Amino acid sequence: MKLTDITPAIALTPLDGRYHAQTAELVEYLSEPALNRERMRVEVEWMIMLANGYAGNGWKPIVPGVEPLTEQEQAFLRAIPEEFGAEGIKQHAAHEAVTHHDVKAVEYYIDDQLDKAADVLGHPTQLTGLKTLVHFACTSEDINNLSTARCVKNAVERVWLPGIDAIVDLLAEQAERFRDLPLLSLTHGQPATPTTLGKELAVYVYRLNRQVGHVRAQQYLGKINGATGTFGAHLAAVPDADWIDISRTFVEDRMGLTWNPLTTQIESHDWQAELYGTMSHANRIMHNLCVDVWMYISRGVFAQVPVKGATGSSTMPHKINPIRFENAEANFEISCSLLDTLAATLVESRWQRDLTDSTTQRNIGSAIGYSVLALNNLLGGLKSIHPNEAVIARELDENWEVLGEPIQTAMRACELAGLPGMEKPYEKVKELMRGHEIGQRDVEAFIDSLAFDEATAARLKALTPATYVGDAAKLVAYDR
């Protein structure tokens, strides 16, 4: 049995196979049929505007000889993309098999529907004679750039942003819950000034919120201006129309995008490079979070909640592997590689047009899909861990040498205030603590050996590794 003979067809990529359930929501916006449906929306809205005008021209037809469309006729046109389903996909594919051009196939598909207009509406209609208005004065990229922008905008706003919002919200809640839980820091992998678990989680909340803010503020640009961006065909056909204003109004009011007035045949894709760069950056921050949490788990700071019936290792039954974080890491990496490639290549075009962007943009769904998959893995992982407070407390109690920093800093302040015996504070503390195992008694004895004033000595003796966390708890409030 050849696998290629099996129906329905076996998925080649894991996004449409193993992980389909986690990424299926993107099919609504970033699949090939979704793009074709959006192309139809652009085409029919362009027809309606050409026939019915807009406020700027007094709601008169833009193209002479076309009568304004009735509400019923407009509803019929708008139903074409809304009812584009399994049969429509087959019909479009049949046209494309002949034309070898996906946008032309969309045009012919709309023509097919116009042939049915009188029967559907139950009376004669000018729609049956308006095939020449479909794709009027348009180049394929006029339709494609608007459709792609709308597809990406919807996918980001309705799928990707809710996914990352869920992670940020969970991290923020955990940061608040554990704002006072002391944690031994490791800088360069060595015991360092303690912090709190909440503050360390809040760092990620702050970092991610900045990137989310950039994505929410992202402009999605669009154009409709002809074969080389000059409105040449438009003016040749209808010279008295204000095509620049028509273009602006259509892109902004009908398409809900930001109008780009200056393009070649293609919209320059700079907004895509900006967006994908920001999304890639957010991926990398979350990749960093995955690595940190993985190491916290390895160190015992986080404990994992066992999943009933799950196997951690095929040979070692005791193990609970942090696979959600490992899977998230890998999928963030794949997403970043695709997003980075999109950002780097889409901003270049040979003179007024080449087709490299066309095939490149077909991978937008994969780029965002792997990020969505990673978001799901990360969220599931974060929900399955909790602090192991016994391990955290033991780590702190085993590392009293981290109090060398506050002691030598206090010595510096005392030396500046004129107290005797405080010279070379760093060197004195290093001699006591560097490379040595010390405990509370050693620290207190060292403090007693120096001529601290009474208040400073008491303040330093009151410190423990668990209480030497500065304003870490207060800083959590700044994560938003």
From TrEMBL:
GO terms for molecular function: N6-(1,2-dicarboxyethyl)AMP AMP-lyase (fumarate-forming) activity. It holds the Pfam family Lyase_1. Pathway: Purine metabolism; IMP biosynthesis via de novo pathway; 5-amino-1-(5-phospho-D-ribosyl)imidazole-4-carboxamide from 5-amino-1-(5-phospho-D-ribosyl)imidazole-4-carboxylate: step 2/2; Purine metabolism; AMP biosynthesis via de novo pathway; AMP from IMP: step 2/2. One of its GO terms (biological process) is IMP biosynthetic process. Residues 17-328 form the Fumarate lyase N-terminal domain. It comes from the Bacteria. SUPFAM superfamilies: L-aspartase-like. Keywords: Lyase, Purine biosynthesis. Its EC number is 4.3.2.2. InterPro entries: Fumarase/histidase_N, Fumarate_lyase_CS, Fumarate_lyase_fam, Fumarate_lyase_N, L-Aspartase-like, PurB_bact, PurB_C. Residues 349-469 form the Adenylosuccinate lyase PurB C-terminal domain. NCBIfam families: PRK09285.1. Catalyzes two reactions in de novo purine nucleotide biosynthesis. Catalyzes the breakdown of 5-aminoimidazole- (N-succinylocarboxamide) ribotide (SAICAR or 2-[5-amino-1-(5-phospho-beta-D-ribosyl)imidazole-4-carboxamido]succinate) to 5-aminoimidazole-4-carboxamide ribotide (AICAR or 5-amino-1-(5-phospho-beta-D-ribosyl)imidazole-4-carboxamide) and fumarate, and of adenylosuccinate (ADS or N(6)-(1,2-dicarboxyethyl)-AMP) to adenosine monophosphate (AMP) and fumarate. This is Adenylosuccinate lyase. It comes from Bifidobacterium choerinum.
